[in-house]
UniProtKB/TrEMBL annotation:
This is Uncharacterized protein. It comes from the Eukaryota. PANTHER family: CHROMO DOMAIN-CONTAINING PROTEIN (PTHR46585:SF1), INTEGRASE CORE DOMAIN CONTAINING PROTEIN (PTHR46585). The lineage of its organism: Eukaryota, Metazoa, Cnidaria, Anthozoa, Hexacorallia.
C-alpha cells in the first residue's frame, strides 16, 4: 500500500500490517504507593568512590503511573 493510500478509515489496518497486534500489558513495579525511597545522584566522572551515590533526603511515593515506562509520583 502506498503512503498516499492511507486514510483515517484504514489507519488501523496499516498499523496492524506494520507493527502487528498491539498488546496492552500492565507492568508491575517493585514499589507501591506509600513506600519511602531515595533518589540516585548523577555519577560524575571523577567522583570519589567512597561517597554515597544516593540523596540524603527520603521521598514517599504518592502514586504509581502506568504507561510505556513505569513512573512514580512523589510527595
Amino acid at each position: 500500500m502506498a503512503p498516499e493510500d492511507v486514510t483515517g478509515k484504514n489507519e488501523a489496518e496499516v498499523w496492524q500490517r506494520l507493527y502487528g497486534q498491539v498488546t496492552k500489558t500492565r507492568r508491575r513495579g517493585r514499589l507501591k504507593a506509600g513506600d519511602k525511597v531515595r533518589l540516585s545522584e548523577r555519577v560524575k566522572t571523577f567522583k570519589k568512590g567512597y561517597l554515597p551515590q544516593w540523596t540524603e533526603e527520603l521521598f514517599r511515593i504518592q502514586r504509581v503511573i502506568q504507561g510505556p515506562v513505569l513512573m512514580y509520583r512523589r510527595i
